[in-house]
Amino acid sequence: MKSLAGLFAPRAKLVPELQRGRELLNAIDAGGIPLNPAIVNQIARNLGLEVSTSAPMEETIERVRAAVERGVNTSSAEDGLR
Length: 82
Known about the structure:
- The structure is a single chain.
- By secondary structure, this protein is mostly helical.
- It has one domain (13-81).
- Helices cover 68% and strands 0% of the residues.
- The chain has 4 helices and no strands.
- The protein has helices at residues 2-8, 16-29, 37-46, 57-81.
- Helix 3 (37-46) packs parallel to helix 4 (57-81).
- The radius of gyration is 15 Å and the shape is globular.
- The two termini are 22 Å apart.
- 12% of the residues are buried.
């Protein structure tokens, strides 16, 4: 019964920067292609990454993916301590 409770428990909300990064990655994984590199760069900067305007977008997306993963893992670990 306890495992069912976990399915319906409200999930912790992510900070806006992580949420926006996750939304970008979900859209890309669903087959979307970012049309504006400036938006991708801004999301990366909001996550604390230093991004060159000349960096390839694919590289920036992979760095965003790693940053979101780290942020989600940190958030999950903090929730477990509460």
